[in-house]
Design goal:
alpha/beta, Rossmann fold, 14% strand, binds nicotinamide-adenine-dinucleotide
């Protein structure tokens, strides 16, 4: 059986695939990352990064220079040279909320095409329960010879913005297996991380991922619903969350009231889990309510802006933050972008800034003015909005902002500032749940 250092191929070199491949190289394995986007592979081979993720660039350069990390567009090449193949391709949502598994199916066929000896095929993409069975069936169907292989589910729990640290120090590693045969090799791969390992069946492993993400989304919607009560009752949601979070059974994480969650995972995984449940004969009404609360939270925030400005049309509104959360350039399903599009639709003129997501945002916010300095955004604005919780926004020059704005009105969608301090500085300050 395979022993460390392992020969690993990663198919799909995006946020998950690139982090996974790089971290595996960092802990000593020989890794080939495959991507079918030639421009991405070209950039990586030239030492440039297609995405922003703290700490990743240094590790990519270090491991590529050491010869442990390679990039190619050829799945054939990557699979042939490896013993273990990880799949990290997109699993995007379809209009009805179900998951588009065509990328998974295509990669399964591509792997089958070049499979000539035993390999472990590991699914890292987030997929509906029973996808492993389909991957297995597809590989068997398209494989030209009768080759043995194992299909494993190894869901990924990293958070964008903290992906490297999350990958190298995971809370747990989940292996869903059909037999015990691949378990030793899988444990060898991850052994340097010294993390707790859960070995279970494939279906349960697949469900662990959807159940976890849906639960985290539920926690956010819960505190957002509490924030509505806090506003109505004159309480402070931050105080409530702190008091709740000190209970070890609850924990403080994911109890930050905001204008809602977004990103490439929570909204999609939530819809997928609702759809999976429906297909299995269960109406997951609880999760439908989580979605509803999230949508209402954005509506409530827009209404707060409209109620204060009376008319949004022709107002100049500064927006700080475009990525879906701090520390990333990812704008997929970003609440900040959704808010900008909404304000634009109402006729606002937008001045925007983000520390890392400007290039990606330019493709969707064509009519906004992009500023290169957060402190220049408030100049001449009728209102300023904080849409992403970048820590550096806390260092905004508030005196300068107040003086340079047409009207010092600040809508804080991430509760970055203290209401009393903002009011003392002369701002009309509106945040969430306080
Ligand atoms: P991504 O879009 O950033 O990356 C996917 C990559 O796969 C792209 O670079 C694409 O070009 C490539 N690709 C598509 N088809 C291919 C093929 N046939 N051959 C080779 N490459 C191909 O997506 P991502 O954010 O890395 O997500 C991948 C999976 O991981 C999804 O299922 C997602 O739900 C899951 N996931 C994502 C995160 C996250 O934070 N982004 C966390 C955990 C799990």
């Amino acid at each position: 059986m395979f022993n460390a250092p392992m020969k690993i191929c990663i198919v799909g070199t995006g946020y998950v695939g690139l982090v996974t491949g790089t971290c595996f190289a960092e802990i000593g394995h020989d890794v080939i990352c495959v991507d079918n986007a030639p421009e991405k592979v070209k950039m990586l081979n030239a030492g440039q990064m297609p995405i922003y993720e703290p700490g990743l660039e240094e590790l990519v350069k270090k491991n590529a220079a050491a010869g442990r990390l390679k990039f190619t567009t050829s799945t054939k090449d990557g699979v042939e040279k490896s013993d273990v193949v990880f799949i990290a391709v997109p699993t995007p949502p379809q209009p009805d909320g179900s998951v588009d598994l065509s990328y998974m199916e295509k990669v399964s066929r591509e792997i089958a095409d070049v499979l000539t000896r035993y390999k472990i095929i590991v699914d890292k993409s987030t997929v509906p329960v029973r996808t492993g069975e389909k991957v297995c069936e597809t590989i068997r169907r398209y494989c030209k010879s009768k080759v043995e292989f194992d299909v494993v589910s190894n869901p990924e729990f990293l958070r964008e913005g903290f992906a490297v640290q999350d990958f190298l120090k995971p809370d747990r590693i989940v292996f869903g297996v059909q037999s015990q045969r691949p378990v030793h090799a899988l444990k060898e791969i991850y052994a340097p991380l010294n993390a707790p390992v859960v070995v279970t069946d494939v279906n349960s492993a697949e469900l662990i991922k959807h159940a976890s993400n849906s639960f985290l989304a539920l926690k956010i919607s819960y505190i957002n619903a509490v924030s509505v009560i806090c506003e109505a009752a004159g309480a402070n949601v931050e105080e409530v969350a702190n008091g709740m979070g000190m209970d070890k059974r609850i924990g403080r994480e994911f109890l930050n009231a905001s204008l809602g969650f977004g990103g490439s995972c929570f909204p999609k995984d939530l819809s997928a889990f609702i759809k999976i449940a429906e297909q299995l004969g269960y109406d997951f009404a609880l999760l439908r309510e989580v979605q509803k609360i999230n949508a209402q939270q954005m509506e409530r925030f827009v209404r707060k802006i409209a109620d204060t400005l009376w008319v949004i049309k022709d107002k100049t509104i500064g927006v700080l933050g475009l990525s879906f959360k701090q520390n990333t350039d990812d704008i997929r399903m970003s609440p900040a972008i959704a808010l900008c599009l909404r304000l634009r639709k109402e006729g606002a003129r937008l001045k925007v800034y983000d520390p890392k997501a400007m290039d990606k945002a330019r493709t969707v916010l064509k009519e906004a003015t992009f500023m290169d300095d957060m402190n220049k955004v408030p100049e001449g604005c009728d209102a300023l909005v904080i849409a992403t919780e970048w820590p550096e926004f806390k260092k905004l020059d508030l005196q300068r902002a107040r003086k340079s704005m047409t009207h010092p009105i600040l809508f804080d969608g991430r509760n970055l500032f203290e209401p009393a301090e903002m009011e003392a500085l002369g701002f009309i300050y509106k945040s969430i749940g306080r």
